[in-house]
Amino acid sequence: MELKTNAALIIIDQQKGILHPKLGRRNNPQAEERILELLGYWRRTGRPVIHVQHLSRSEDSVFWPQQSGVEFQERFQPSMGEWLIQKQVPDAFCSTGLEARLCEAGIDQLIIVGVATHNSVESTARTAGNLGFETWVAEDACFTFDKADFFGNAHSAEEVHAMSLGNLHGEYATVVSTAQIL
């Protein structure tokens, strides 16, 4: 496991709306601290940072463009020279040009963090792996929410998070901790 000098940190959906109480109970309350540790390291070492912003097509979404929830949280504001990718579906590669930009920049190693583990993180990591990128997901720099399965059985955010990481690890991505990366 070696971090390349041009490894890209992809920070998914760290927008004000993700903190809305209507999303329910979440896991991993330290996730934002871990993301900020990684972001600080990436900025200090001059590695590429990619901020992904969700622009929902649904008016009742916390990421609907006509309200403040769509804006980045202050602590995750993109800095000069960092990339901004705007998406309308969970997968940050879908109709965004992300793959082409990464290839043009010669970037083939991606470290994915953010929200929600079972949704945009998993979707983006699956595509990254399928496209042949060396993909790492930082398990302690992601979080998700309590969710019912297809049959109506309730699952805690911890269970949803663990299953999502299990879906990814070894097939689409390598799941690691922030400490392992740093």
From TrEMBL:
Keywords in alphabetical order: Hydrolase
Pfam family of the protein (one): Isochorismatase
Residues of the signal peptide: none
Annotated ranges, domain Isochorismatase-like: 7-180
InterPro entries: Isochorismatase-like_dom, Isochorismatase-like_hydrls, Isochorismatase-like_sf
UniProt GO MF annotations: hydrolase activity
Protein name: Cysteine hydrolase
Source species taxonomy: Bacteria, Pseudomonadati, Pseudomonadota, Gammaproteobacteria, Pseudomonadales
